[in-house]
What does this fold into?
Amino acid sequence: MKEYFEKLKGVLGNKVKDFGVDGTEYSVLLVDKKLLKTAAEIIRQDFDVLFMLAVADYKPKFELNYVFSSYDKPDTIVIRTYITDRDYSIDTLTEVFDSANWEEREAYDLFGIKFNKHPDLRRILLPEDWPGHPLRKDFVVTDEVRNWTGLDLKF
Amino acid sequence: METLKGIRLNVGPVHPATHGVLKVVVDIEGDTVNKAQVEMGFLHRGKEKMAEVRYFSNYYPIVDKLDYVSAINMEVLYASLVEKAAGIEIPPRAVYIRTIMAEIQRIMSHLVYIGSIGEDLGNITGMFWALRERELLMDLVEEVSGGRLAPMYMTTGGSFYDLPQHFDEKAEKALVRVETKINKDYNSMFTKNQLFLMRTKGVGVLDRYMVKKYGITGPNMRAAGIDRDLRKSEPYLAYDKVDFDVVTGEDGDANSRFMVRVGEILQSIRIVRQCLRDLPEGPYVTKTPWLMKIPDKRTFVRQETPRGEMAMYMITNGGTQPYRLKIRSPTFFALRALEEILVGVKVADIVVTIASLDPVMGEVDR
Amino acid sequence: MIFNVIYGEVARFVTAGPAWVVTMLITFVLVFAITALVPIFLGWVERKYSARIQSRYGPVYVGPFGLLQNFADIMKLIGKRAISTNVDRLPYEFVPIVLATLSFAMVLIIPFGGANLEFISVPYSLLFLYVFLAVSPLLVLMAGWGENNKYAMLGGFRGVGQIATYELALIVTMISVAFLAGSYNIVDIVNGQSGLWYGAYLPVTLIVFALTGLAIIERAPFDIPEASQELQAGWKVEYSGIRYGLFLIADYVRLMIVSILVVYLFLGGWLGPVLPGFVWFIIKTAAVLLIIMAPRWTLPRPRIDQFIKFGWNWLLPLSIVNLVMVGGLLLI
It folds into this structure.
């Protein structure tokens, strides 16, 4: 596990921090979200897929946990980064990891995080005219949500 | 809107062959698919949001309905997650009980798969036969837990009840029957049936490259020839103490996906038998408080469910509820491959391809 | 000819002119009853049969052994409201009626187990039956078009492709049998088998005929145009109520006609030792029906391209080779 971090550190310098085994998994903190794609490209050398993308809303910032997995070895690595500014945007990983496509769509759907240059950034689980992003902590069930019928959708 | 040469067909969400509420929009010309788009979310129940407002122990009934065809596997996964986060050790008997029930549920899930692929090919008898065999195992689950589809058997620290008396004999009886049916009857209906082979061979090919590109796991991945099984590579429960093989296919088409599942049923029967033989005595549950607090940490657990590698990522903040629970659904990734593998197939093969990926929309939409 | 028998009976009481009308009415009622009873009985047989295959009981509650279950179903279909929106009225209404009428006509001209047991004797009865069976591509396309539904249209296209393919093989097999008998009349064909059944001369033709017959009447596993999995019900998808019931009737009558034709053309019809002809007819038809019904419950459905390829590449050449062989046989 450590060697992946060393590899990242070699390119990104002090922009990455080693969490060690934070909780239960080996995690790496990426200080600058702009470096995500560079980090992903380094990780791509050892890992095959974006296994999952777990987003959490710590108002006002978002925490993104990218879990990477490989088909040949049992290792996983978690890259954690934060979105702190108000535009809620981060670079997409779809060019590096194709499996990120729908995970990022889901994150966009449920959290409203915009993935720059994502090829197909539409809602995936919720209907297109759904008001708001329900997994944000400040989501409240308004009348608009309660009275949503789906009749305005075009099929 | 661009002009279409053929017909734009909505396969689903209320279509008899899409296994729930999957919607695939296909552009067809003649009888051939030119383009396919997958739409989902018709069964979205906000399970991840629900986790944030429920105590850890109160989430089990909800996790049951996540993948309603293999509910016990979901329970085991969630229970392992909570135990890992809270640092609870479960007694060895509970480990074995969990392994037994998870494998029985895996057989049931694969039987549903066999039946539904038969039905989608127009052979309703296959469905009836598979459900007939599943019913024997369903009776076992009912006897153990009191429930059938959503048994709610597992709890934090073990299981709700001990295995009933003479469970091993009843289980053996059911397993023998399933085994003989699969080895004999199913040959004529599926595995050696020429029409069945004609319809499934070379249909919906997912090769190694595509598997790695889309992040597909589970039997769909093994059918493409990748030898990987979390039960082997990172054993959880009692899988390191039992002897079983990882079934792999070669071609990655619908037929090898089918054969992998048939092989996995036989392997699961082996595992259940070994576990029943080695079942240790002792307590079946570690008593845990109903309301517990888990410190600020992140927990990641992944297990091999019948549909692939399911994972949960839980963020806790010292409260009685998860701060965030993310569920990784294996079929969610597999369904994305449909947009690629459906291109160029005939309309009749759409349903076979979908069925051969074994989607359960409860788990995809969460 | 039953019509003449009835006329003879009626003419004893009524004068000539009205007697024709009365006879026609009686014949109509009889044929109608048979046409309506066939699906009820065959449907019951099929349900029980499939239930045995699938480890079920099948219908039990309605009538003895559930015999009246299909009667109840047809009653239900009659009582149902027909829901149809945006359909092309003319073809939509036309198709079920024509299909039911065609099956009615087939019951009218086919003998039921005896030389004189047909309602109306027609010299070229085999050709008539062929035409009534094989006119359906047109109807299928009309229905698929008139329903204004994508699934129905796909089903219609498939239906035309499939039936048009298999019609050719069907007529060629029929012709080879007619060659052997030297007649297109079913009674002559059956009587021609008093020595050896044609099925013994032409076993391949028998199989080809059964397969093409199943394909023409869209019997599962060859129900590709109405594939209930991928196309829901194909060209029948928008029909409900008694219009659907008429399809049901037509389906079962055509199934019965095909199995009777197999018996007449290849298995010696009502000819047989010891037992009376009618009993032989019933036994043979029942056996053929049960054999024909079994694949529906045990085999998956082939794909449309595979099936059409099979028709052109195998069945049609086989039947033509058989025809040539029959010609050679006759020349010798």
In short: The interface with chain A takes residues 10, 40-41, 44, 46, 48-49, 84-85, 211-215, 221, 226, 228, 230, 233-234, 297-302, 309, 311, 313, 315, 323-324, 326, 328, 332-333, 336, 365-366 of chain B (CB under 8 Å).
